[in-house]
Design goal:
Layout (H helix, E strand, L loop, with lengths): L1 H8 L5 E8 L5 E4 L12 H13 L8 E3 L4 E2 L6 E2 L18 E3 H10 L3 H11 L1 H10 L5 E2 L7 H5 L5 E2 L1 H12 L6 H12 L16 E9 L2 E9 L6 E8 L7 H18 L1
Antiparallel strand pairs: 1-2, 1-11, 3-6, 4-5, 7-8, 9-10, 10-11
Helix pairs in contact: 1-9, 2-4, 2-5, 3-4
């Protein structure tokens, strides 16, 4: 704790939240862990959770195909809005409007490439309220999903998704323990997150044999990463790093900060 507090103290005018929950020792680390922040794309994890839950109850199969489209309704007044390909880290779906894709592949693109378009299509499919209700049913606090991505009318009215690092780590720990839906579903979600393509933060400075199932998020001056770290020869730990205030035009500062924190945590727990 003292090492971590000393490290983050150097980042003046920045908010850095750290939450760690170790399945091996049940030790926890929480620094600024209850600060509510815009979750950016870390909110795609509970979307995935609800997709798997509705699969479990038989609403649909992951191998069902649904249409790719880019027209969504604001939570404020039902007015239409669409997503800009320039603001999305996954581009391929935009050239496939009108075609069909499996729910399984849309879920993968949502997590590993952080596709905003796949996310909104899946949120339309399962419903925003059921996503939030499932989070609450699991006893996860301060993780709130209110709206689709890029609903700018809602954003202007401050109707936003809000997560805390502590709540997000609790969510990840439940997945690590196999307690989200079932062991099988939790394992499958971990498998998806192990394919993450953006690895500049939590995994960056860890030994190459350490697997990390995680989900990044970034928007404006918010840069986040949350995941499950699997060291060799011990149980995993869940970790969430949320930051606010790093410059949007030099994201390496935020990534480097989170990578160093992740390394400190790993070395302290191993």
């Amino acid at each position: 704790m003292s090492q971590l507090e000393k490290f983050i103290a150097q980042f003046q005018n920045k908010t850095i939240s750290i939450s760690v929950s170790d399945l091996e020792t049940n030790q926890e680390i929480n620094i600024n862990a209850d600060v509510l922040m815009h979750p950016a794309s870390t909110m795609k994890v509970p979307v995935m959770m609800e997709v798997f839950r509705q699969t479990q109850v038989g609403n649909f199969s992951l191998d069902d195909q649904i249409e790719i489209y880019n027209s969504f309704q604001s939570i404020v007044d039902g007015s239409d809005f669409d997503l800009d390909v320039a603001d999305d880290s996954e581009k391929t779906l935009y050239s496939r409007i009108g075609e069909k894709e499996t729910i399984r592949e849309l879920n993968r693109l949502m997590i590993v490439w952080s596709s905003n378009l796949a996310t909104n299509i899946l949120m339309d499919k399962v419903g925003t309220k059921p996503i939030d209700d499932f989070i609450k049913e699991l006893g996860i606090k301060n993780v709130n999903v209110m709206r689709l991505i890029e609903d700018k009318q809602a954003y202007r009215l401050n109707i936003n998704n809000t997560f805390s690092a502590r709540g997000t780590t609790h969510m990840m720990r439940l997945i690590a323990e196999g307690k989200v839906i079932s062991q099988e579903a939790s394992d499958e979600m971990i498998k998806v997150m192990l394919g993450q393509e953006f690895n500049e933060s939590i995994p960056a400075l860890l030994p190459k044999d350490v697997k990390v199932a995680h989900k990044t998020g970034w928007t404006g001056e918010f840069f986040h990463d949350t995941g499950i770290v699997f060291p060799s020869n011990r149980k995993p730990y869940a970790i969430t790093l949320f930051t606010n205030g790093f410059p949007e035009d030099d994201e390496s500062q935020a990534h480097n900060c989170m990578a160093e924190i992740s390394k400190l945590v790993y070395e302290g727990l191993k």
